[in-house]
Design a protein that fits this description.
Blueprint (H helix, E strand, L loop, with lengths): L8 H8 L5 E7 L2 E7 L1 H7 L3 H10 L1 H9 L4 E8 L2 E14 L2 E13 L26 E2 H17 L5 E8 L1 H8 L1 H18 L4 E6 L2 E6 L4 H15 L4 E8 L7 H14 L8 E3 L2 H22 L3 E10 L5 E12 L3 E3 L1 H10 L3 H22 L6 E5 L3 H4 L2 H12 L6 E6 L2 H4 L1 H14 L2 E7 L5 H7 L4 E4 L11 H17 L2 E4 L5 H9 L4 E2 L8 E2 H11 L10 H8 L11 H4 L8 E7 L3 E7 L1 H9 L4 H10 L1 H17 L3 E4 L5 E10 L2 E9 L1 H37 L4 E6 L9 E6 L2
Parallel strand pairs: 6-8, 10-11, 13-15, 15-16, 16-17, 17-18, 18-19, 19-20
Antiparallel strand pairs: 1-2, 1-5, 3-4, 4-5, 7-9, 7-10, 8-9, 12-13, 12-20, 12-21, 13-14, 22-23, 22-26, 24-25, 25-26, 27-28
Helix pairs in contact: 6-7, 7-8, 10-11, 12-14
Length: about 750
């Protein structure tokens, strides 16, 4: 026979002195045997402890139901004193030293007529177990034990109950600033407001700064807004948010209902204007996806369902592909393509994102190493790091170990960091950035301009490149302000010695504008969507090397990209301040054989050419065919490179030219050239060209006339034919000819 559990003396006395109705049972040979009852239960039954233990042992129909119950709440009909009462039983199995004991709370509901189903509980039980010490509201324990009974009772009479979960935004900051005593007073005030707003419902302090209201009120949205106004008007917090769930299934547990209200609350996100959200299909889908992500993430990594897709980056100066960004894509055999919006946030919230980021970096390095071994020319790749990466591990050590494993130079990996990371983990980020820079990595700020502290971040952190958020290209045709902002961002970055890349380029108009203001790199669907590795490598083979910038020339073009074509590049940035340029400016490359190639001309330069009905290619041909201009330009280029300084020379009595050497790669050099009085010189050149054209036309005309004259002299003259006739019989006529002189 099973031995009955023996409480220690102190524990037994503690349980027996409890004021609320409690009984503890132990299962013995398939039956429940009472082993302890509280003073509160003795008062409810109006029996002594010994008599009550005997009575509970004898009413086997109730203990049998408790033993086989499939839920934690039961109602039963029992005799108390001389009348029958309906009692709600809450069942809770607990382990005591390896022995399962059943703790049963008894709650007297009232006189029992016929119905034994749960009915409305609209009062707080007369014990401290269910009361919140601070606010006096019902507490989370009460909600867990009896909340479902309230909801089911409302369904049974045809009402629509709702579970509303409230959260106070900024409570932690309020406590830190005003003190915890003031915070407690604030929560008490909110409690009273909730009781006033929902007098017919159940108002519960769920935990900390969260409250739950169970209510059938149809004007609950108006009441949520009213509470928001009260909070914002009287307290220095961010306000409140609410998640709402419509309870419709009597079989659903209270925990499930609260969880759905919590998911609806989370769905509102960080947007403080999003006051509430009702649990709906969009919320359900998001969290179904969340569960799928969490349960299949490791399998997806192991089987490489998550892999990098590569989106090309274009050098605006040359039009060549100068790099790629590796973007994580989850190709699931069951669910298909999972959007990054589905899994990135989930992995960040659960601090698993570092495993994803390191897996992507490992696959990128593996690809780069393979291309090197196969002799495939490949460009550097930028990889993304999350703010969580800097919190959960030594991310520099992890990334560098992967790079060294695959024997990849640091120049082939660019590290992208979201702007939001700078404000969430500034200390960890700064330490890691120092290590990355010391090892030779470039660090790029991703989504610049999407946050609220961009300029301050540029002051405090050292970045090599800004990736300008695609939001600035939205409504590009109709919103001229975006043009001004983009121009100013590029200008500012150049002054700070930072390169620029603009994301989201979708049209030629956008690309031309960004190139004209000196944005170094361009990225977007206008050039290519993100491609899987196989398609990316196949495209390299198809296009040929001319479409791709040799990796060894990255530094050459990066150095050229430091030139700010929006201001005078011949003068120090600091001394000239910020003043936009109206001087004609060109970037000219000197190639072997003294061939001059115009890579870029600014607005002012193009304008002067257009007025003379010339374009950049025609002007390039004129310069290369001009003895004086080309000779002067080559001389100035030579002097500038040798002196490492700006040099100038006179084109004529009114026009001058300045030249500054920018960068060299093997036997080619890039120079920036500006011309004073360019229009005057172009007019002279135009007249000379027109004169040359006229002389050429005259020469062609003269040659045509000469050809005609020579043709006349050399052409055969008319031929006279004479016949000698002999009238003698049988004589044939003789014919002869004489060419006319």
């Amino acid at each position: 026979m099973t031995k009955l559990y023996q409480f220690s003396k102190a524990n037994r006395e503690s349980y027996e002195r409890i004021n609320f109705a409690l009984a503890v049972f132990q299962e013995v040979e398939g039956k429940l045997v009472p082993i302890l009852v509280s003073d509160g239960l003795c008062r409810l039954y109006q029996l002594s402890r010994e008599d009550l233990l005997i009575h509970l042992r004898d009413i086997s129909y109730i203990t049998t139901n408790m033993l086989t119950a499939q839920q934690k709440l039961l109602t039963c009909r029992i005799k108390l004193a001389e009348s029958y009462q309906t009692v709600l039983l809450h069942l809770n199995w607990q382990d005591f030293s390896g022995q399962d004991l059943l703790f049963v709370d008894y709650l007297n509901i009232g006189n029992d007529e016929v119905d034994t189903q749960p009915v409305k509980i609209d009062y707080i039980p007369s014990n401290e177990q269910y009361e919140d010490n601070l606010t006096g509201l019902l507490n989370g324990d009460y909600l867990t034990r009896f909340g479902k009974d309230y909801l089911v009772s409302k369904l049974r009479i045809g009402d629509q109950p709702r579970v509303i979960l409230f959260n106070v935004i900024g409570m932690h900051g309020y406590n830190e600033h005003f003190g915890y005593l003031a915070g407690d007073r604030f929560l008490t005030k909110i409690s009273k407001q909730l009781l006033n707003l929902f007098p017919a419902g159940l108002v519960i302090r769920y935990n900390d700064d969260r409250f739950v209201v169970l209510s059938t009120d149809t004007d609950y949205i108006a009441k949520i807004k009213q509470l928001q106004k009260f909070v914002l008007r009287n307290y220095s917090v961010g306000g409140i948010k609410a998640g709402i769930y419509y309870y419709t299934n009597a079989q659903e547990s209270i925990k499930s209902a609260i969880d759905k209200a919590r998911k609806a609350l989370q769905y509102t996100g960080d947007d403080l204007t999003q006051l509430y959200h009702v649990f709906d299909e969009s919320v359900r889908e998001k969290y179904v996806n969340r569960d799928y992500v969490l349960t299949h993430f490791q399998e997806a990594l192991d089987k490489r369902w998550i892999k990098p897709y590569y989106q090309m980056e274009i050098r605006s100066l040359t039009g060549q592909v100068c790099g790629y960004e590796a973007l994580a894509r989850w190709i699931d055999p069951k669910e298909g393509i999972l959007s990054p919006a589905v899994f990135i946030g989930v992995l960040e919230d659960t601090h698993l994102i570092n495993r994803l980021d390191l897996s992507i970096i490992d696959q990128v390095c593996e690809m780069l190493s393979s291309c090197y071994k196969r002799g495939i020319s490949i460009q550097p790749v930028s990889v993304n790091l999350s703010r969580v990466d800097f919190q959960v591990c030594d991310i520099f050590a992890e990334v560098d170990a992967i790079r060294r494993k695959h024997k990849i130079p640091t120049s082939y990996l660019k590290i992208e960091i979201l702007e939001s990371t700078l404000t969430t983990v500034p200390d960890q980020l700064r330490a890691a950035m120092d290590k990355f820079h010391a090892a030779g990595y470039q660090i790029w700020m991703d989504d610049f301009g999407s946050g609220y502290s961009s300029l301050n971040n540029l002051k405090d952190f050292d970045f090599d490149l800004l990736k300008i958020d695609m939001i600035f290209l939205k409504n590009f045709k109709t919103n001229s302000r975006s043009h001004i902002i983009l121009r100013e961002i590029v200008d500012m970055a150049k002054h700070l010695g930072i390169h620029t890349l603009c994301e989201g380029v979708e049209t030629k108009e956008q690309a031309d504008f960004l190139r004209a203001i000196g944005c170094d790199r361009l990225q977007g669907f206008y050039f290519s969507k993100p491609l899987p590795q196989e398609e990316m490598l196949a495209l390299i083979e198809k296009n040929g090397l001319d479409h791709y910038e040799p990796q060894e020339m990255n530094d050459y073009y990066d150095t050229i990209g430091e030139t700010n074509i929006l201001v005078n590049p011949m003068v120090s940035h600091i001394s000239q301040g910020i003043k936009h340029l109206e001087m004609p400016l060109a970037l000219i490359e000197r190639r072997p054989g003294d061939q001059l190639v115009y890579y870029f001309t600014n607005f002012a330069y193009k304008d002067e050419l257009t007025r003379r009905q010339l374009d950049q290619e025609e002007w390039q041909e004129i310069v290369n065919n001009s003895t004086f201009y080309k000779k002067l330009l080559l001389s100035l280029m030579h002097r500038s490179k040798k002196a490492k300084a700006v040099v100038n020379g006179m084109l004529d009595e009114r026009s001058s030219i300045e030249v500054r050497h920018l960068a060299s790669y093997q036997d080619q050099d890039m120079y920036v050239c500006s011309i004073n009085n360019f229009g005057h010189y172009l007019d002279k050149t135009r007249r000379r060209e027109d004169e040359k054209t006229r002389r050429r036309e005259d020469e062609k005309t003269r040659r045509r006339e000469d050809e005609k004259t020579r043709s006349k002299k050399s052409a055969p003259g008319p031929v006279l034919i004479f016949y000698l006739l002999n009238f003698y019989s049988n004589h044939q006529p003789a014919r002869f000819s004489v060419e006319a002189a």
